[in-house]
Structures are given as structure tokens and as C-alpha cells.
């Protein structure tokens, strides 16, 4: 057996395919980068940045845009980046800010959020730099915690003279209480889905950076573009590039061919479906299961009738779930004519059996 990987590799730089990797040049997000940079520009003058929401479907470059801009102003502000799925409470978020300000974490016990907040503001006044707090995946944070964090940060200038800019990254519209909403007036920067040509450009950039010249066949690459465009999830395409390369190396091949892509596709799709399904609650999973269980064309009225008979779900909640499933790109919703009226048809983005297996395993 030729253990190719012991002597040679198809990868010029495999880290290019890591989820956290951000290229030096972020293509097809130039407008969003410029808009965010302008909002944070006041920090360069030691003034308060403009509060901003980066909003759009998953895998549309929000986090990459944020990190690209933040690294350009790192010397001019105290920047705290927080992934909210890992810090869903007020205490954890303020602990991250405290650690960024002081260089060490707060005491494990004996300090309240109010006291920690005061110490943060005192430390910022000594540093004499604006504070930028970036809360990524803000929609994962507990609602009461989100309001508490935002209100405290937004009032820091009034109470302590601290200059603060807040950036929220979210895939869903945020709902704030009346008190917080009255003081939070952010600029919103929207991130649309990438179209197929943009997906091709971005994946080609990764191929050039990550593989040696001539490794990726055109047929294999175009198949990955096609599969990525079908799910509209750029992360899936980058994952397929890496796994197809690993599969080609496993075969001791010097080129990545179509069969390598097909070999890793189903397993890759199940990995990404599992991630998406993990973000759904039981009601949302049930709606998704019904959609993928119906034979033939699926319309929203039929799904709602089945669901109402099973769990007596309200109409408003049902359409909230449909909208979420569409944002997660598990389905598409289109309008079509049926009889004299118009009907919302639901299109399944994934193979039915693949989705139903993923739901059972999840």
C-alpha cells in the first residue's frame, strides 16, 4: 500500500479549511466591510463607535466581516468578542469584558454583576480607550440577560463617561424590552445569501490557498459548487473541499476527483444537518419532520392541518417556525397558484431520507 500522506500531501495549507480561518482578502463582502468600518471609525478618534447589528442567514460572512474589521482597529479600542452560545448569561459576558479590561478573570465568588460593571468602567476610564463589545450569535443569549447586558453597556457613557460601541451578530430579529429598546438605536447591516457565482469565487479562493496547483479537477470542483449552492451554506462547501482532499489522499491519489466528492457528500450533509437540527426545539423539529414526511408537493396549509391535529399549535407560531426553517436553509418557501387563490409551497432542500435519518439520530 502506498501511504501517500507519509511523504506527500495534496494540501498546501490545510488550515485554510478550518471553520475559524479568515482570508486576508474577504471577497463579496466589500460593502458590508466598509459599512462596519465606518461605524467603528469614531474609535480611531477616541470617540464612541456607532452601535451596529450584523443581520442575515447563517454562513453569509457576518463573523468573518466582524473579525476582519476588528483586527484593523485593535490598537485603538478595548475589544471584547463574545460567542453567546458559550456565554448565555449576564455574568459570563461581563466576566469576559472584565478579563479583557484587566488582563485576568474576576474572582470566582464574592463579586456581583453590578460591582463587576463598576470595575469595568473604572478600568476603561484609566485606559482612556473606547470599549467595543461584539456579541456573536446574540440570538442564543437568554432574553433577560440580553436586555440587561445591552442596557448596562448603553448607559455606561451617561453613568461613567465611558465610550462604548455594541455590535450584535444575529440570524434572527431581536426582541428587546421597552426600556432597552428606548436607548438602543443601532445601524443594521444586512448580509444576503451568496449566489452561485459568489460561492464559486469564494471556494476557488480556498482551493488556491489550500491545495497545491492542479490538485482539484474541474469536475470535482463544480460538483462542490453545485452542492454548496443547493444548501446555500458556504461552510458546507469548505467542509467538502477538505474532506474530498482527505478522501483523495486516502486513495493515494494525486488529484481530487468527482468520486471523492460523492464519497464524502452524504456524511458531510449529515454532519451539517445535525448542527442545524441541534438549534431546533421540539416543535420546530416536529414541523420539519412533517414537511419531509409528506409525499409529493408540500404546501403550508397541509402541514399546518397535520400539525394542528397533532399538537394544536397556533397559526402565528407555525409561521414563525416556517420562517426559521427557511432562514436555516432547511426548506424554501415559494408562492404558487392553486385554484383561484395563491398557496405557499414548501420546497425541501435535502434528500428526504437523509433528513429523516438526521432527525431520528438528533
Main attributes of the structure:
alpha/beta; 362 residues; single chain; disordered N terminus; 3-stranded antiparallel β-sheet; 5-stranded parallel β-sheet
Walk me through the topology:
Layout: H1 4-7, H2 30-40, E1 52-55, H3 62-70, E2 78-83, H4 90-102, H5 113-127, E3 131-136, H6 143-160, E4 164-170, H7 178-181, E5 187-190, H8 196-210, H9 218-231, H10 234-250, H11 258-278, H12 282-293, E6 298-299, H13 300-311, H14 315-327, E7 331-338, E8 341-348, H15 352-361
Parallel strand pairs: 1-4, 1-5, 2-3, 3-4
Antiparallel strand pairs: 6-8, 7-8
Helix pairs in contact: 2-3, 4-5, 8-9, 8-10, 9-10, 9-11, 10-11, 11-15, 12-13, 12-14, 12-15
State the gist of this model.
The protein has 362 residues and is of the alpha/beta class. The protein is built from 15 helices and 8 strands. The protein has helices spanning 4-7, 30-40, 62-70, 90-102, 113-127, 143-160, 178-181, 196-210, 218-231, 234-250, 258-278, 282-293, 300-311, 315-327, 352-361; strands at 52-55, 78-83, 131-136, 164-170, 187-190, 298-299, 331-338, 341-348.
What percentage of residues falls in helices of 4 or more residues?
A: 40-55%
The SSE string, one letter per element, is HHEHEHHEHEHEHHHHHEHHEEH
Dominant shape = globular
Number of helices: 15
Q: What class, by secondary structure content?
A: alpha/beta
* Fraction in beta strands: 5-15%
Radius of gyration: 23 Å
Largest sheet: 5 strands, parallel
The oligomeric status of these chains comes to single chain
Low-confidence stretches: 1-6
Walk across the major sheet and give the strand order: 2-3-4-1-5
How many beta-strand elements?
8
Overall residue-averaged pLDDT value: 91
What separation lies between the terminal Cα atoms? 38 Å
